[in-house]
Design goal:
Jelly Rolls, seven-stranded antiparallel beta sheet, four-stranded antiparallel beta sheet, globular, binds succinic acid, binds fe (ii) ion
């Protein structure tokens, strides 16, 4: 695990440059294993729009979106089986990143895996489907770079933009837990470990 600098991007928000770099190959191998059981897929919004990023989950629950809206559920709707369990490598990294930012005892029960190809992005949104907002969010970037938009507590607040590169981790919680955030459409790029893809692992305590 790296001891790279911790950059404050909010009162309770941190960018840990390269924090996951040393673990990246293990994380990617575990992603491969997870997606062989619960494949990446384009989910749709309540209104029927396809999301640009492909998603899957591991952990006790998984985040899903369909014509009924957003929610967490214990089964993968593609198989009606439980989501793959959260690998040790994921849990260890998420806990260490949270601790680095003084969020102790963070034990996520879900990791949402997003996969973005060039031109895919994610609009500004809040993560607010979880029961307990006292727990932080830990977000790991792997593969090609992306621009993270970090807004305020109101949708209209102008977001700051941060480049997220392979191995970077963002942690936000406390009074920043409900800040709007998103991802600008990715530029065409190539990474030796992921090809044209960016993976994002988002760890949360949902239930
Ligand atoms: C998300 O907010 O779910 C994803 C953010 C990211 O891809 O970095
Ligand atoms: Fe989010």
């Amino acid at each position: 695990m790296s001891t790279a600098p911790v950059r404050m991007i909010g009162q309770h928000s941190f960018l840990l440059k390269g924090f996951a770099s040393a673990e990246a190959t293990n994380l990617l191998a575990d992603i491969k294993h997870i997606t062989s059981q619960s494949p990446l897929r384009h989910m749709t919004t309540r209104r029927g729009y396809q999301m640009a990023a492909q998603m899957t989950n591991c952990g006790r629950v998984g985040w899903v979106s369909d014509s009924k809206g957003y929610r967490y559920q214990t089964e993968d709707p593609l198989s009606d089986l439980a989501w793959p369990s959260m690998p040790r490598s994921f849990l260890t990294l998420a806990k260490k990143a949270a601790e680095e930012c003084d969020y102790d005892n963070f034990i996520p029960d879900v990791c949402l895996i997003n996969c973005y190809y060039p031109r895919a992005g994610m609009g500004l949104h809040q993560d607010k489907d979880e029961k307990d907002f006292t727990q932080p969010i830990v977000s790991v970037s792997l593969g090609i770079p992306a621009v993270f938009l970090f807004g305020g507590l109101r949708r209209s607040d102008k977001p700051d933009a941060y480049l997220l590169e392979h191995g970077d981790v963002v942690v936000w919680g406390g009074g920043d837990r409900l800040r709007f955030h998103g991802i600008s459409p990715l530029k065409l790029a190539h990474h030796d470990l992921t090809g044209q893809c960016r993976f994002n692992l988002t760890f949360r305590l949902a239930s």
